Amino acid sequence: MAVAIRLSRGGSKKRPYYRIVVSDSRAPRDGKYLEQIGTYNPLLAKDDANRVKINEDRARYWVGCGAQATDRVARFLDAAGIKERAARNNPKKAEPGDKAKERAEERAAKIAAAEEAAKAAAEAPVEEAAVEEVTEEVAAPEVAAEEAPAAEASEEQAEG
Known about the structure:
Helix content: 40-55%
Largest sheet: 5 strands, mixed
Number of domains: 2
Low-confidence stretches: none
Radius of gyration: 35 Å
């Protein structure tokens, strides 16, 4: 029989309370267990002494018998000095994914282009001829857009 030291949930909805239990690893999470060796109340402050309570003698006994602790319980046992937990090292933990990096690069490129355009506009004197060309370009699409629906309407009348 494989024995596990794990958390068994109690409490009401949105108010969790856990028992630290020793159970058969095949048993359901909140089902039958061999022994309760502690409690964990995540609603209390992290520095509160009542947040995690463990019966150290019983925990040492079950660890000595070969019981495997879950990751969260292993952290509690390590903090209590019962069982040493190997520190994990994940240097890429906070690093964003590939697509997020691509979006950030695109955003940075757009911002850089906008800043360069703003600098160029601030440095170059405004020429009246350039302003007239811009206004003609802006007005031309509007005229073309007004003519297009009229042309479509005349085609529909011809068919109908």
